[in-house]
UniProtKB/TrEMBL annotation:
Entry coiled-coil feature ranges: none
Species annotation: marine metagenome
Protein name (record): Putative metallopeptidase domain-containing protein
Span list, region Disordered: 1-39, 183-202
Domain called Putative metallopeptidase: residue spans: 45-191
Length: 202
């Protein structure tokens, strides 16, 4: 968001009910975290600039991504992940992406929070529900030109699964038709998205 003093980034929350092992470095606007390597400095700058660009060019996603606490989880996270409170990242993976791909990745994680994918799975097959969630999110990002599709990993996208579909409907459609595959990001259990996510709402 903008004010007469320039760009203001809302401080991220600092508490969570779920923190996977190995996630020790929390990076928030008001923290005293000091990167201890050149790579860490690069990735923090890259993520910070991506969030600024999202606030300017995609304010809906930009505002929401600033609510997630950036967390270096390189010891266990291979790409990106979120539990609705923290945004976990692998420093090497982030540094391998273009600026546009970083924006796509951050917006993708925000999408899991918006659609409350962390708490909607219930007793459904985790692999297929994760796939269904990715189809829903990636369609929206592509349609609204949010960043650039990541090319280093497989991104699930099919124009068939447009905004008329819910995650549950995509799940029912693919579970007997497609082989299971791992999604590019890691899907974690958590308290749901931002505290008020209601899903697609169709």
């Amino acid at each position: 968001m903008m004010n007469n003093k320039g760009l203001h980034m809302t401080p991220a929350p600092t508490k969570t009910l779920h923190k996977p092992p190995g996630a020790k470095k929390r990076i928030a606007k008001d923290s005293q975290y000091a990167p201890n390597s050149h790579q860490e400095k690069e990735v923090i700058n890259k993520l910070t600039m991506a969030r600024v660009r999202m606030l300017l060019n995609h304010p809906f996603f930009g505002n929401l991504v600033t609510r997630l606490v950036l967390t270096d989880a390189s010891t266990w996270c291979h790409t990106l992940a979120t539990d609705g409170k923290y945004l976990y990242f692998n420093a090497e993976f982030v540094n391998s992406l273009s600026d546009g791909e970083v924006i796509f990745g951050l917006a993708h994680e925000v999408g899991h929070c918006i659609y409350d994918h962390m708490s909607r799975r219930e007793d459904r097959n985790p692999a297929y529900f994760n796939m269904a969630g990715d189809y829903i999110i990636n369609y929206q990002l592509v349609q609204h030109n949010v960043g650039e599709r990541i090319t280093k990993v497989k991104i699930l996208y099919d124009a068939k699964y447009d905004d008329k579909w819910t995650t549950e409907e995509v799940y029912d459609d693919i579970k007997d038709k497609q082989p299971k595959c791992e999604t590019w990001d890691q899907h974690l259990d958590g308290e749901g998205g931002f505290g008020d996510g209601e899903g697609e709402g169709e």
